[in-house]
């Protein structure tokens, strides 16, 4: 009957999908700290180097402490000096790291984008409520921030001199955008391909 046929077809399709699922090897880079402390990884490069963040405490009875770390493929982890309270999001093959640091001010000026190298330390990329989310191997950095007098976040390119290039929003009824990633497939303008979202939020 049609019902049993449909179920059979779904079962065959499901088995077909299962047969195509690749197998993965899982490597434990870090073992979690005792609760409520937390370690987590956000970005990885082609060398297997990863960046992430650590949090100690939950505010009771001692203040929360947090920072960023670089974890090598052999599980050696180093604390990134000068990034206390910051968040690291991505790392490229040059071991350049991007993320966000708090300003201590209320929104819309509570965070700025940050670029970090082991040799040079942290560079303030500017922005308001800004997050530098991704960096490619050419050192091009994307993320999002409030730009100018707009009440909405926009996808931006962060330049290392503190300048932000507003990428705007998609045509139509959208007022907000965010950039989450950039690759190494460069166009005629020399810029990598960028991925993100554009949506509508009430003011």
Q: How would you portray this structure in words?
A:
- This protein is mainly beta and 203 residues long.
- It has one helix and 14 strands.
- The strands form four sheets. The chain has a four-stranded antiparallel sheet with strand order 1-2-3-4, with no helix packed on it.
- Strand 1 and strand 2 form a beta hairpin.
- The model has no long low-confidence stretch (mean pLDDT 86).
Present the secondary structure layout.
Blueprint: H1 2-20, E1 38-44, E2 50-56, E3 65-71, E4 77-79, E5 87-91, E6 97-102, E7 111-117, E8 121-126, E9 128-135, E10 141-146, E11 153-158, E12 164-166, E13 176-182, E14 194-199
Antiparallel strand pairs: 1-2, 2-3, 3-4, 5-6, 6-7, 7-8, 9-10, 10-11, 11-12, 13-14
Q: What is the 3D shape? A: globular
Return residue spans where pLDDT drops below 50 for at least 5 consecutive residues. Answer: none
Q: Helix fraction?
A: under 10%
According to DSSP, the number of beta strands is 14
Run of helices and strands: HEEEEEEEEEEEEEE
Arrangement of strands in the largest sheet:
1-2-3-4
- Assembly state here? single chain
Gist?
This protein has 203 residues and is mainly beta. The protein has one helix at 2-20; strands spanning 38-44, 50-56, 65-71, 77-79, 87-91, 97-102, 111-117, 121-126, 128-135, 141-146, 153-158, 164-166, 176-182, 194-199.
List keywords for this structure.
9% helix, mainly beta, 4-stranded antiparallel β-sheet, 203 residues
